[in-house]
Amino acid sequence: MSRQQLVISLPEAAAMIKDGNSVGIGGFVTTNKPMALLREIMRLRTRNLTIIAPPSSMEVDMLLGLGMVEKLITPYLGAEAIAPLGPFHSGWAGKKFSIEEMELGTLVAGLRAHAMAVPFIPTRGVVGTSIPSLNPTLRYVEDPFGGPPLIAVPPIEMDVVLIHASQADCYGNVQHLGATFIDQLMAQAGKKVIVQVERIVSSEEIRRQPENTTLTSEYVDAVVLTPYGAHPMASQNHYRVDAEFIKEYVRVAKACVKGQPELFEEFVTKYLDNPHGHAAYLETVGLERLFSLGEGA
Amino acid sequence: MSEKTYSTAELMACVMSRHLQDGEVAIMGAVSMIPMAACRMAQETHAPNLYYIAGGSGAVNPHLEPLVFSSCDDENLRSDAAMALPDVILLEGHGKRLDVFFGGGLQIDKYGNCNLVCIGDWDKPALRGPGTVGLPFLPRAGRVVIYTTSHNARTLVEKVDFNSGPGFLDGPEGWAAKGLPGNGPALVVTPLCAMDFDEKSKIMRLKSVHPGVTVEQVVENTGFKLIVPEHVPTTPEPTETELKALRQIDPTGVARNLI
After folding, report:
1. B74–A234: do the CB atoms touch at under 8 Å?
2. Cβ separation B84–A184 shorter than 8 A
3. Which residues of B fall within a CB distance of 8 Å from A93?
4. Which residues of B, range 50-89, sit inside 8 Å of A by Cβ?
5. Residue A188 maps to which CATH number?
6. What is the separation of C-alpha B163 from the centre of its chain, rounded to a whole number of angstroms?
7. Which among A153, A234, A276, B63 is least buried, having the fewest CB atoms inside 10 angstroms?
């Protein structure tokens, strides 16, 4: 018997996500987003998803625009200075999808509760906000040691978690080589974890600096090779965010929300439906454009 | 206005920078170019021991030259440390770790509550905002510096439609009853003025108007009854030292060109 190798193709990975699944998306705002995996899932138009994401951006907005999301759980959707709002998120919330109100501390507590296998984690983070009255999963709980009441956050579990990282070996030992955001907690709370990477390296390479390993093979179910796979988002230590691409998306998505879907449909055809596979997507974007996102370029 | 040797964003950065004290710990979230400029500037001038965290990336004292557009840009990694985000959350939630938290909102009300969640009813919002991010932690920091780049009656409102970043809640009694660890909002910086809060009523109070701005202009553009003291000073213009520090850290004008 030999050790199990976890490298699979993008279509194989996308097929792991079923209608009605809860899907976790790693990364943070416009950095380290598993875009290649998401594009493949978007091509399939998998439906009725519950999306759980730390601060997110156009990747989630696009899932909303394609009508794939039933419920959204994220503390933020925007692109910081590039674009303050996601058009579909801002315009369609409560109309075409529902929202479970969530802030970053509560999300982290819920993931931690799952990782610790406890029924809840007591927190103080949302005291004073309007959130407890709107998020039905939160409860006030007595402090058994006599202090003031706390807010109990139950475990958050996801059917599939999608992560973007720098490199992995074929057995699923993953290294970020940059910030990990809350990717590790997300992976710990996923029934299945798929990691897309800029490159696949040998086990010798991983063993040379095991302290860089951010997710061990125990947590990882599949690895997919996707160089430039975070585009148009940034991949830390590899390339910067493609701000112009995001602005173009926001333009066409805004028009769609206002009742003019043509440009959005063109965008979807050009970047999602027509390119067959990741390499074809990169060709559509163009090498020159991709290379211009490198350091010093 | 065009005669000025500095931009409004630069003046705002100066007001924030002057508020920061040497040895303090400050934190900011997304879209925080002006606070980032203020922190770097304070470090280069009167507060070399200021410790600041760019929330998104967990970067501690990112040595930003030039400034960047995102708190999670990997330029932030040129820093003292890159904290894991769950550890940043621990700091934010602790209640005794942070001196200053920079916040803001689509709406900011007279008690300094901030709203990034929705305009109108939560169920059927007229506009869904970007979301809470880490703003619920505001009252767990020593004090809050609120800022906005649009000072108008739609942003500065009587009462927020959704409280995602608590200020003095519904006033002094409600605030005291919650027993929150921080001292609440301390400073509000806008393109028109600086404001603080009345010690007793906890209502926002005009502190200084920026050069060229009148008190009437501020009152007209504020959607609630602002406390206006008898004498309102003019915000001191950026000094040469301040401007030199600012332009050294922001040569490309990331913050300068905002407003």
Report:
1. yes
2. yes
3. 118, 125, 128
4. 56-59, 69-74, 77, 82, 84-86, 89
5. 3.40.1080.10
6. 16
7. A276
Q: Do B164 and A105 touch (CB under 8 A)?
A: no
Nearest beta carbon to residue B133 from set A55, A127, A181: A55
Residue A212 lies in a domain: yes
A5 in a domain, yes or no?
A: no
> A165 and A42, same structural domain?
yes
Distance between A100 CA and the closest CA of chain B, angstroms: 11
B119 touches chain A (CB under 8 A): no
Task: List residues bridging with B189 in a β-sheet.
Answer: B147, B194
Beta B25-28 vs B51-54: how paired, if at all?
A: parallel
Q: Tell whether the torsion through CA atoms of B61, B66, B69 and B70 is positive or negative.
A: negative
Searching chain B, which residue's CA lies closest to the CA of residue A186?
A: B86
Mean pLDDT, chain B, integer: 90
Both ends of chain A: CA-CA distance in Å? Answer: 47
Each residue's pLDDT tens digit, B135-173? 899 999 999 999 999 999 999 999 999 999 999 999 999
Question: Do A174 and A193 belong to one domain?
Answer: yes
| Core vs surface per residue A257-285: b (16+ CB within 10 A) or e | beeeeeebeebbeebbeebeebeebbeeb
The reply to whether A168 and A282 lie within a common domain is yes
Q: Could you tell me if B107 lies within 8 Å of chain A, comparing CB atoms?
A: no
Contact B71 A80 (CB under 8 A): yes
B8-249, CATH topology level: Glutaconate Coenzyme A-transferase (3.40.1080)
Per residue in A170-199, pLDDT (tens digit) is: 999 999 998 899 999 999 999 999 999 999
Whole domain around residue A146: which residue ranges? 119-154
- The predicted pLDDT at position A296 comes to 59
A281 plus A169 within the same structural domain: yes
Do A254 and A287 share a domain, yes or no?
yes
Q: Write out residues 202-221 of B within 8 Å (CB-CB) of A.
A: none
Which tokens belong to B29? 């979230």
Pick from A293, A146, A160, A150: which is nearest to A220 by CA?
A160
Same domain, A89 and A177: yes
CB-CB neighbors (< 8 A) of A105 in chain B: 89, 92-93, 134, 136-137
CA dihedral B145→B149→B154→B159, nearest 10 degrees, is -10
- Residues A92 and A239 reside in one and the same domain: yes
